[in-house]
């Protein structure tokens, strides 16, 4: 039996229950980051909105630069081993065509998430980012697979 | 500095509601002209919502919608997003184009005819709200060329919610129901003023 957990913007979920499936529905320029210890089947996901932290705002899970280390801490605290950890990311789309700088936010989110993962030496195992379509993503803690759905396409698993 | 939506008082909210009313009235008139039939409207709902609740309000994060995005410039600046479900947009297209209406699949694949029809509808409706705001405030307001996206509601609104979230955690949403004979069509209009521009708007209305 799967236990579906849907996370909203700037929210996260970390668990050691292999039945958990962590989901983000309708992801656009936001980024969903998954961290997973395949040995212990411990993992977590965060729904990131913006690349850099804004002074005065205290929720680290909203910003890529703070959310990557924050999720990493949460997953470690749950018992994940630093040697066994891997990352998967999805999202960062450019939903509207146009030159408005607002539309580049997805790309910048992805860049900062990747840079933060490199700093922490966490290997990026799957990367389904960019493009111009929204995604719904499902992260299965039983084996760490990430299922990605887009409108009009068959789901893919990475 | 800068007022955020959750800090508005009743009088200020009423003023924004009135802008919503006039905007929806303009939009209904514009739609009537386009389709050549009388389009009525229900009194719009004006909501101040926590950001995380916005996709749910639009029918759920995976609901297939069209979004039209514009920037507002002039005396006050900000962003505008108009959202409508694909099913409701198809109803309008059907009134407009009859048998030539593209299929749901063509719309989702952004087929050229579907795309330009959708762009046009979105443009007419969103500029109706903006001209209501300009008339009601007496401010000179312009808007950019609209940009269209067709996708899941969550994905369409997230870029706008991201922009709002830099300053606060609430959004202003105006929900209007348009009626044409047996057709009921819902449109959602979101206004996101830049820092300082909400004050300019409220000042111009005289409620600050």
List strands and helices in order, with pairings.
The complex is a heterodimer of chains A (158) and B (208).
Chain A lengths: L2 E4 L5 E4 L4 E8 L3 E7 L4 E7 L15 H14 L7 E7 L13 H15 L4 E6 L5 E6 L5 E4 L6 E2 L1
Parallel strand pairs in A: 1-3, 6-7
Antiparallel strand pairs in A: 2-5, 3-8, 4-5, 4-6, 8-9, 9-10
Helix pairs in contact in A: 1-2
Chain B lengths: L9 H26 L4 E2 L3 E6 L3 H4 L6 E11 L3 E8 H12 L6 H5 L3 H26 L3 E3 L3 E6 H13 L4 E11 L2 E11 L3 H9 L3
Antiparallel strand pairs in B: 1-7, 2-7, 3-4, 3-5, 3-6, 4-8, 7-8
State the share of residues found in helices of chain B, binned by percent.
40-55%
Percent strand of chain A equals: 25-35%
Compressed to H and E, one letter per element, the order of chain A equals: EEEEEHEHEEEE
Q: What radius of gyration of chain B results from the CA coordinates?
A: 16 Å
Structural class of chain B: alpha+beta
Q: In which order are the strands of the major sheet of chain A placed?
A: 1-3-8-9-10
Terminal-residue CA separation of chain A:
21 Å
Mean pLDDT over all positions of chain B: 85
